[in-house]
Amino acid sequence: MKNITLSLPEDLLKQGRAYAAKHGTTLNSLIRKLLTSTVESGREAKAKQVIAEMQKLKSHQKRIDWNREDLYDR
After folding, report:
1. Total domain count, the chain
2. Model confidence pLDDT, tens digit, residues 49-59
């Protein structure tokens, strides 16, 4: 794992530490979970958007009804 440095206002840092302690976790773990949640929800939203676009394309396609005889009309 890589380490990073964050700059936070002192009051936010205190509130974050208090919140984490109240919920039996560390500030580091809390930030990691929040970041993971944010990133994953962005991926999920993008996946839903792609699926919706694919469904639009599929609904606009015309069905081709043909048979072997039609292909080889002599």
Report:
1. 1
2. 888 887 777 76
Domain that holds residue 47: 10-60
Give yes or no for a contact between 53 and 67, defined as CB atoms under 8 angstroms apart.
Answer: no
* Token pair 């990073």 in the structure block, residue: 4
The stretch 11-18 carries a mean pLDDT of: 95
CA distance linking residue 45 with residue 61, whole number of Å: 25
48 in a domain, yes or no? Answer: yes
Its pTM stands at 0.56
Instruction: Please give the C-alpha separations between residue 4 and each of 1, 39, 57, in angstroms, as whole numbers.
Output: 10, 17, 43
In a domain, 68, yes or no: no
Q: Dump pLDDT digits (tens) for 38-50.
A: 888 878 878 888 8
